[in-house]
Amino acid sequence: MAWSDVGLTTLLWVLEILAIAVPVALSVAYITYAERRVIGWVQVRKGCNRVGPHGLLQPLADGLKLFLKETIIPTNSNKLLFVAAPVIALIPALVAFAVVPFGETTFFNVWETTHTMAIADLNVGILYIMAISSLSIYGILIGGWASNSKYALIGAVRATCQMISYEIAMGFALVCVLMLSGSMNLSAIVHAQDGGFWHWYIIPLFPMFLVYFISGCAETGRTPFDLIEGEAELVAGHMVEYSGMWFATFSLAEYGALILISLMTSILFLGGWNAPIPALDFIPGTIWLLAKTSFFIFVFIWIRATFPRYRYDQMMRLGWKVFLPWTLAWIAVLGIFTYTPFLSDIIGYYQPWRP
Amino acid sequence: MLEAGFFYLFAGLAVLSGAGVVLVRNTMYSVLWLIFCFFNSAGLFFLLDAEFIGIVLILIYVGAVMVLFMFVIMMLEVNREKYKEMSLQYLPAGAMIAIILLIEFIGASASGVFNTETIAAVGHLGKDVNNTVEIGKILYTQYLLGFEIAAIILLVALVGAIVLTLRTRKDAKYQNMTKQVKTRREDRVRKVRLES
User: Fold this and answer.
1) Fewer CB within 10 Å, N- or C-terminus of chain A?
2) Does ipTM top 0.85?
3) Which residues of chain A fall below pLDDT 70?
4) Within a domain: residue B140?
């Protein structure tokens, strides 16, 4: 390979990465805006509507404010890890987007075959997402420890317990999807749900869809599971000591994870870039995927506006005593359905790997 | 060439971070070095086309085991002075393990098992070979017994850990969800007529 080729490939990679990272960062800014407006609407008040038309410039003003604020580093903190923690939290949130397929394209008929719009179309896409999202805990854990503050430490410990508990239920929900699709490649999973909403996995796996979505809510530490931050007792959990840009980096990671969970829910259970009925195929797949994702983000905000926070033991009970048996039982049900004659004809409709 | 470059990068960083784990004073830094070491080992697996093992290494070790390590270490208060006194005490045992390992490594590399001629596939397999599928096939057919035994041992360990730590405190109050949900108004509220 000539050096010019290496340079060209690198440039293409950089462009691909920017094409995903920049929209994610921008949409994070506008999700905060949407969150404030939607919660305002739910609570019968205005929300932010002063900066720019309908308050649309508010996220930019907020960004500028956070950027200009002083970064305070506590004297007795571990300075290196204190500064590194928000970055460690942000990296997995962005890196996970590498395998998400945003659709399929022939690049306006320039290419002869269709390509998947993902930076890396890995064979082990689902495992990659699981592995990377399980790393997001480190930023919180390190930040909580390095702050050398009791609230931050308690917040970090709570966050760890919560994420480990809900990761298991989430993993088992994914196993159910794998049992139907027969592949861990995300674009293969979308192709397994081709052709109308009656092929989507939300129908045979509706309980798993709920488990995955609620666990995702707990993973990202959103209300009703935001005990990590629980401002009444912990002020702001692991973020107590952070200010300015470093605080913003933490929220960037948090909202990035929120977008990722919404994307994954649409890909795994709602047919990804497929239109609900084949007649609507003329609308590009990417628009469908983003529309489904936006709907789930809206549901997250809706949940935040309406549900009170869980108590800690109740949350642990939900993860271990409700979701875990539920998902395990569903795996058994799927297995029995797959290998029992007659029943296998019903489930076989959703299993493209069946000969 | 590029592949060799990546190999030396990952292997070198793995060795470096392995040394970092034992040389660094702060236990928190040790854990971070260990995590970095796992990442580099995962990189080596990727170079060998073993993407499943690489990802699982990150998922299990970095995503779960090391989180628990860090969790425990965060709570520890390490006494540096005492630590220094104790470190010499473990030197003979540690040195012995190191020497045994060194002999083993030299023996293994000289035995000829790892020569390029004897390894089945030196080059890369095609993109259609999915090593998750291959591992699954071989694990659930040929090595099923070993797999099941390992699973049972893990289950026993799990049950053992729960049995050892399970204790019901008499003074603590526990919540019974079923009872709470089933409670009706009549169970709690009583109408009393007071004579005035």
Assistant:
1) C
2) no
3) 1-2, 107, 109
4) yes
